Amino acid sequence: MSMKVAPRLKSRPKRYRRFTSRTLAIPRFVVQRMMLKPLVWSLTRVDVRTEADLRRLRGAFLVVANHASHLDTPLVLGSLPRRLSRYLAAGAAADYFFEVRWRKWLTSLVFNTFPVDRTGARAHSGVSKRLLARGVPLLIFPEGGRSASGRIGAFKPGAAALAIACDVPCVPVAICGAHEAMPRGQWWPVRGRPPVTVRIGAPIWPRPGESATAFTERLATEVRRLHAMNDSDEPADRPRSSKGDGMTEVRHMKWWGWGNEGVAFEYRDKPDFAPFVQQAIGLDVTAPGVSVPEFDSLEVPESRLDDEFRTELEQIVGADHVQVDAMSRVVHTFGKSIRDLLRVRSGSLERTPDVVVYPGDEDQVQRLVHAAVAADCVVIPFGGGSNIAGSLEPAPDEERVVISLDMGRMNRVLEIDEESGLARIEAGALGPDLERELGKRGWTMGHFPDSFTHSTLGGWIATRSSGMQSDKYGDIADIVRGVRVARPGGVVEIRAIPSASTGPSVREMIVGSEGRLGVITEATMHVHRVPEVREILGYFFPNWKAGLAAMREIAESDASPTVTRVSDAPESAFSFATRKESKGIEAAGANALMRVLKARGWDLDQICLSFIGYEGSASHVRYEKKLVRKIVRRHGGFSVGKSPGRLYDQKKFDTPYIRDFLLDRGAAGDVSETAAPWSKLEHLYEHTIASARKAYDDIGVQGWIMCHLSHSYHAGACLYFTFAFMHGDEPLKQYDHVKSAIQQAFIDAGGTLSHHHAVGVEHAPWLSQDISPEGVALMQGLFDSADPKRNFNPDKIIPRS
């Protein structure tokens, strides 16, 4: 497809000559590329990622970026190809940069600035339009000001209106981490070379007849999508769609793997990764990967939906929100476990949903549930599709019509009760969406699971999720206070009461029910004021035993960190191997530290990396850090500062991309997690490691297993294991053997079958050993009574006997 060419320079009135002057471009090049860029790149660790080929971009265009720091302009100028940044003019606040002569002269020389009115005055009206008409590309920050928190604010429509009027494309750019690298009020980056990521998206042209408001929303959505790949506080790529309007715009992860199309793990900028993987599992990552099959080559079962029932569904939600195409049904068949990906990539699609339906509100959900039960159909609620326990798939022998009820359109924060610290939120809200909406009013829910960017509130509740900051904010079972569930007879409403003595808790029955008791439509959640200070510090411990003991003592202390995490030596080594190459002072400092530790008698192969997070007022954070520092020192550890914590915070949601990278090259990698009392953790860890190694020997493969502790409680903690091996011709059989050995080790050593990944079908074989046969019978009685015809996600948690 050819790319349109934007307007080019036609004439150069005297007033605008400086913007395209070759004479001025020379000193600007010297300052930007030979002085400013090396300075900024040396004070921060800049990672530039471009999603599109910009070589065909010609003429004038707009660069539209989020704004959080004075670093943003030099970051954009230094990240764009020289051909595009040579004459790029940066918008600058007229009331600040153009009121003082020296400031105007300096910014004009360095950044080729043009004035932007942000006070309502129109003294500079038309300047940007004239520049575009003369072929000058512009850099604009549509938020109109810097965001102190780094969250992307509302976009003003000026940039979109300008692009429409001049018929030029917009290049979306997301800047992540600049607000921490050089916060508002500072004129120099913080110490430690904090990480910053600049993501450049594909050019976006305004559509024929598109309004400035609509184009603004598209631009904002794309910038937020780019930002969401790096920052936990921003939304994933899910455009809103109002009830009954237009096509269903809910976007999903790629059908063959995790995350968005075009996003993948890159190892070539991490020099230690390839040799690490070669030694760990015998995989040469430089060898060509296995190509993903073409979707058209899959044999997708025909839909069993008849025309009459389809018409009934369309009458409830609208024809645009009822989909039976093959892609929609395949996307909604599985979650994202290794088992799921191996099957979908091999074309093993025994049973898919027959129809995907997108309700727009609770009334539509209720009517859909009533119609489905009346027609004896199966209803499987679908959130983000990130589940890895088999909670989404239809039974292979299911003969009834299967409806995948995608909640993606129901993604609003409905109400915030600021006096009570409660928020009503629709069940289909993705984590980044709801955090953005809460953040606009100064609130946070504090729930950040590994799947945050691609999972929903309803999914968290249905699977008893736990977030990375659960030490302070609690698991989802602690955060949810009220819930509404659509059932055939009406809506179950659990009000948000602080505490009540009303018999067995119906709320607790809903939490973790995996859709077997009905469809969660909304929930009322605990929310908290956005903290004044948020920090994550890195620590080193001499060995795993010392790290465990320190985490236990921190849990018993007066400190209340948001995150307490320590990796064993294998996972710490993996973390070091996935770092980008360090140079200069940073590399020298790291090498010097290792020499000092070795001189002190540390076994460098046993070092354990830990992250501890703090939130609250400045004084409270100082107190907690001081208290934790004393505990860490008592166990032989020490702090390595904020820089590792910032990098962890920025990359914490990227691990699934590494799993897909390995799968592309013939290696199976997955996770299993458990929880147990403190007194049993060390034995549980050792027994699980030994069981996995024996399983590798059984199937004759070289395997790897590593672990970290997270989610600390008064009485115990979660242990999270990651394992990988090169599979042979029967990958599912080999995977089942290793996974089963790990799961059985959990039970045998006193742990639970899962701490926060749910039961689904993957973990169901161990349920009776976990909660006892009588416990299973009690739960079965609940399901039989609430769903006698087995219409709601049957065979999950407790399969048919």
From TrEMBL:
Protein family per UniProt: Belongs to the FAD-binding oxidoreductase/transferase type 4 family.
PANTHER family: ALKYLDIHYDROXYACETONEPHOSPHATE SYNTHASE, PEROXISOMAL
Cofactors required: FAD
Species in which this protein is naturally found: Phytoactinopolyspora halotolerans
Lineage: Bacteria, Bacillati, Actinomycetota, Actinomycetes, Jiangellales
Gene Ontology biological process terms, A to Z: lipid biosynthetic process
Protein name per the record: FAD-binding protein
GO molecular function: acyltransferase activity; alkylglycerone-phosphate synthase activity; FAD binding; oxidoreductase activity
Signal peptide range in chain numbering: none
SMART domains: PlsC
Superkingdom classification of source: Bacteria
UniProt keywords, alphabetically: FAD, Flavoprotein, Oxidoreductase
